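Re: Re: ligand-bound prediction request (bumping)

Still looking for help on this. To restate: I need the protein modeled with pyridoxal-5'-phosphate bound, output as structure tokens. Inputs repeated here so nobody has to scroll up.
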Amino acid sequence: MTLEIYKEHILDLYKNPHNKGNLKNPTYEFSKNNPICGDEIKIQILAKNNKIADIKFCGQGCVISQASASLLTDKIKNLSINKIKKLNKEHILEMLKIPISYTRIKCALLPLEAVRGALENVRN
Amino acid sequence: MNSFKKDFPIFKNNPKLVYLDSASTSQKPKQVIKAISDFYEKENANIHRGIYALSENATKKYILARETIAKFINAETNEIIFTKNTTESINLLSNVLKEILPKGKNEIVLTEMEHHSNLVTWQEFAKKYHFKLKFIPITKNYELDYEKAKKIINDKTAILGVAHISNVFGTINNIEFLVSLAKEKKAITIIDAAQSVQHLKINVKKIGCDFLAFSGHKMFGPLGIGVLYGKKELLEKLPPFQFGGGMINSVIYEDATFLDIPEKFEAGTQNIAGAISLAEAIKYIEKIKIEKIERYEKELLDYTLKKLKSIDGIELYLPKKQSSIISFNLFGIHQHDVAQILSDNKICIRAGHHCCMPLMKKLKTQGTCRISFSIYNTKEDVDKLIEGLKKVKEVFRE
Ligand SMILES: Cc1ncc(COP(=O)(O)O)c(C=O)c1O
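Reply:
Sorry for the wait, this slipped through. Here it is.
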């Protein structure tokens, strides 16, 4: 049942996202889109001592990409950059706690891809 | 079940299926499925080659299929070229058309509502030959701006490419008018009939276009077979698109001469079963009569629009003259979420950009939800869709 996707915790995040907005002086910044769906996300990271001091995302997309962005940004705040670089698909699925079908996996992974892109893309 | 639905085995095997994505690909009637299996079970042989009864029979049926398709759109038999789909038909043209374009003309006119297959092909052409692309804009009613078209089509226009029916809005474009504008300027005219040939009567002589392309799979036919119609005089002037067996008159090691049209454009072993069963699909349409299909779908469209309009928070993209395609958005909920929740109730709709990315950008949306009908759809299907949309609202607590 795909309705399992639209669980309370996921819809709550969609309606009241965490860490949505902009940072004034990000160390890293990256935008990534998923052309098939039209999902778009921009990640901004403020790094201090190889750790993530603050992180924000903005953009638009489906429930899955939006919930994934909220959860991921929560999870990696205060984490070391080295640890973040090791995050993979399994971590994201575990975090979302909903069944993700083959066609929606791209939506779930978009925020992680944006974070990876950001960490390779120094802004200041 | 309506009387047409019974002809489509997919509904027997998926009794709850509400299929509202026929613009993407249509379901297949049992007559077509039988033609495919009959060919492979009883008649399979290559064409034009074997001097034996089985091959002669296959050749005859392949030629008859071409005849059936030609009559269906009021063309001559040798004006029908078999391709893989609409996309390949247009690619065939973009590969060879340069050879016959008059000097001094270097503009291609398309519309803002073209499918990528009638857009990206010409982008590539334009890059290669340094042509300029121009677009007939859409109005706020999701129709083409014909006044602007009069100015955009000018003496420099070498090619006009237009979709007969928009696969996003279902807009029925006035192609006769556009073709006549282009003809005054001696431009080549190409009609993308992928979304029209299954819904309304096509008469290439009346349209007056030089070329017209469509796909078998959107008109009850099998996947992997499509058609390019071209005016005989033009097809004769064009060079072949691909080279190899099946299109050769004679060959020496250094050179070759080619067969006449249409075989000149059909290199390699063709999709014989595809062509034969596409003809069967056309016979199926002719048995019902396309006018009746048009009427039936119009009634269903009106019913659906009335129901959709009663939903709060729905944004409909409605042209005035519309075929059986409707685009909408619901409360800014992402299209994939709408489609996913509907899919829980076995309701199939299309969600996304519909291979029209620049158009979506122009509409300032990432996509739309799209429903599209065929004769097997019923008012019950529509009622289930409406129920489904209410469910979407519930899930999102809108
Ligand atoms: C208007 C239009 N043109 C072209 C195409 C491409 O058709 P095909 O994928 O069969 O080549 C489509 C298919 O969606 C279409 O709707």
